[in-house]
Design a protein that fits this description.
109 residues, mainly beta, Elongation Factor Tu (Ef-tu), domain 3, seven-stranded antiparallel beta sheet, 7 strands, Phage tail protein
């Protein structure tokens, strides 16, 4: 399985992180009723811009399988769920809900 991790500005659609274009180390896991994303980043300008919009971020994980359609997971993030620990170079994002969908299962009527 190939996975792409995206962090986007919800309103403008601008991507702050897109591992399909610029790989960065990240992990994610479900913890109870929320999801924790940890991203290693050392680009202060990019972090500063992302943090300006922390109240309007969405997180996406695209999972591509060899013999199945791509699965897209869309996570909703609240502003207090975004933190950056400068000495570790670690961005932490906590999502409180998500939607999983398979684009191939939707069609125009």
């Amino acid at each position: 399985m190939k996975e792409t991790f995206l962090v986007k500005h919800a309103v403008g659609g601008r991507a702050f992180i897109d591992t399909g274009k610029h790989p960065v180390p990240y992990t994610w896991e479900q913890q109870g009723e929320q999801w924790l994303f940890s991203v290693q980043m050392d680009q202060p300008e990019q972090i500063a811009e992302l943090l300006k919009w922390k109240d309007e971020l969405n997180v996406f994980v695209f999972q591509e399988f060899e013999n199945e359609p791509t699965r897209k997971l869309w996570f909703y993030v609240s502003g207090d769920g975004v933190q950056f620990t400068e000495d570790k170079g670690e961005l932490t994002i906590v999502a409180t809900s998500n939607i999983t969908y398979i684009p191939d299962q939707f069609s125009a009527q």
